[in-house]
Amino acid sequence: xxxxxxxxxxxxxxxxxxxxxxxxxxxxxxxxxxxxxxxxxxxxxxxxxxxxxxxxxxxxxxxxxxxxxxxxxxxxxxxxxxxxxxxxxxxxxxxxxxxxxxxxxxxxxxxxxxxxxxxxxxxxxxxxxxxxxxxxxxxxxxxxxxxxxxxxxxxxxxxxxxxxxxxxxxxxxxxxxxxxxxxxxxxxxxxxxxxxxxxxxxxxxxxxxxxxxxxxxxxxxxxxxxxxxxxxxxxxxxxxxxxxxxxxxxxxxxxxxxxxxxxxxxxxxxxxxxxxxxxxxxxxxxxxxxxxxxxxxxxxxxxxxxxxxxxxxxxxxxxxxxxxxxxxxxxxxxxxxxxxxxxxxxxxxxxxxxxxxxxxxxxxxxxxxxxxxxxxxxxxxxxxxxxxxxxxxxxxxxxxxxxxxxxxxxxxxxxxxxxxxxxxxxxxxxxxxxxxxxxxxxxxxxxxxxxxxxxxxxxxxxxxxxxxxxxxxxxxxxxxxxxxxxxxxxxxxxxxxxxxxxxxxxxxxxxxxxxxxxxxxxxxxxxxxxxxxxxxxxxxxxxxxxxxxxxxxxxxxxxxxxxxxxxxxxxxxxxxxxxxxxxxx
Length: 585
Hints:
Blueprint: H1 2-16, H2 25-29, H3 37-49, H4 53-58, H5 63-93, H6 98-117, H7 121-135, H8 142-158, H9 162-175, H10 180-192, H11 196-209, H12 214-238, H13 242-250, H14 260-272, H15 276-289, H16 294-306, H17 310-322, H18 328-352, H19 356-370, H20 378-394, H21 397-410, H22 415-427, H23 431-442, H24 445-448, H25 451-495, H26 502-521, H27 527-531, H28 539-552, H29 561-584
Helix pairs in contact: 3-5, 5-6, 5-7, 6-7, 7-8, 8-9, 8-10, 9-10, 10-11, 11-12, 12-14, 13-14, 14-15, 14-16, 15-16, 16-17, 17-18, 18-19, 19-20, 20-21, 20-22, 21-22, 21-28, 22-25, 23-25, 28-29
């Protein structure tokens, strides 16, 4: 029964799993060192058979189980290659004949080919190399000798061992210089090493020596076009023409768009244009083609950082460092991203502990560490949104609005920023300002579909109507009181002489002198208190606060001269504030 077979098969697989995986290749294979080559090969095939793709599909294993089985098969193949290498050394030391060594070469080739098909390229490269060593004399089987070199070169090409790849191809060409595959792989290796001219020359030589190979001629034409495209893109990149670079790559064919060098130029351009999401997408494709490409890893780190994916950016940086790129630039990038990550953690902890003042300070510190930041980047919005939230909870409503405005300047549809701004303006009783701003937003299609914005607009209208009604009632009450007081004063004035005496004048003059002296001893204007900001407030926030206050001052034609003079005085003082803070910055 199929279910019984699957259960038995799973039991067999689980039986191979132990908490401590043996490190000795003989133990992994389950053979002894004194077993014959035939016995070892039979045991290997028996174990490998149950991990074959056909067997796993037949027994209905999941993708995860198949992936685990493939890992076990890779381990078996690597162990088998190690054991065969030991046996090959023993045969060599014992002076075994050519037939025995040929058999060993065939065994190694078979295992290495299976490993290559399973994309275990490292094991394949080792297996083919050992098979070449076992064969030793190319005259025994020149065709096999050449084939092993080609396969070994191809495996090394897959693991980015370009120098080894070229060496094996050169050895094959020494025996026979009319092997089209050798020229194709050698050209590809040089391309991966950015030796474009060498790659073209190799194909031209191969085309002359193998004139009947259509594949070589096709590859030569393609490579010439590719090199021309790479040079053109590099020129655009150097001159900062990133938008033009993207347009040029958009027009390239599908084959060209799969080339690593084209993708690298494209990813760099997207990053320079602050399109970090697209840079991540393209650099990920490069990473799939070449997992050890340093430039792609750095682009991934920078782009993920700008996207606000701090942890992912750190991982990509660490990969570059692990691969040996210890350059100052990568180390500095890793250090900066790590500092930002730690600062964000501390700010989050302060918010959770309701230490809002400390959270505001830490958010400001994080922004300083992360600068310079492009205002359109998600990280910019993330950091300023965090500082806006911290200021809201700290009761610094003006600063909360200022930070929210900076976020909205980058992304007008940010509901999180609007939420903070609405709460802050409601706390400040600035209902008219809220109505004016929300009217524009809810009039747009996206805003009309946001219930929170529509509800806030309605609340502001209700609050403003209530406020106006209360003011009217208060005005009516004050008018009645003033009329009563006025009548009483008229009666008193009729009965009393209110002409000031010389003594009264003297007293008033003394009072004025005292007030004048107090004015002289007053401190300079407190710009911080007037704007409602602190020493930690950034110049961007201060500018936003000044803009908000300036918008509140009206200079319409209906203003009286006194009102106009007062409004102009306020505007001058706001300008004075801004100059002060710019100088301080």
